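A reminder from the course coordinator: this example appears on the midterm review sheet, so study it carefully.

Given structure:
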């Protein structure tokens, strides 16, 4: 199972840095995380061809661990339904 060794939120830069066991550190912008929200509502929007847009200014508001397999990310636009499995986060680069 893929679990990050470190999760660092660089709030001022709007970047979440994930350090993986293979030594990679991947920096993902908050806006990209918001756009990739895996919750059912956002998936439906993307299926319908509508972008999930928090805009470039959207920021992470809170990060909570979900068991040992995911992060629940809350955003400054009020959206907080996204459960981001590490397996999915590991595909971002
Ligand atoms: Zn969502």
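Designed residues:
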């Amino acid at each position: 199972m893929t679990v990050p060794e470190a999760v660092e939120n660089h709030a001022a830069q709007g970047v979440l840095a994930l350090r993986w066991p293979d030594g990679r550190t991947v920096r993902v912008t908050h806006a990209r995380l918001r756009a990739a929200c895996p919750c059912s509502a956002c998936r439906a929007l993307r299926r319908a061809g509508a972008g999930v847009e928090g805009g470039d200014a959207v920021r992470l508001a809170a990060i909570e661990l979900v068991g040992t397999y995911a992060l629940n990310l809350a955003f400054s636009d009020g959206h907080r339904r996204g459960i981001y499995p590490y397996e999915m986060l590991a595909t971002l680069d």
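The longest strand covers residues 60-66. The radius of gyration is 13 Å.
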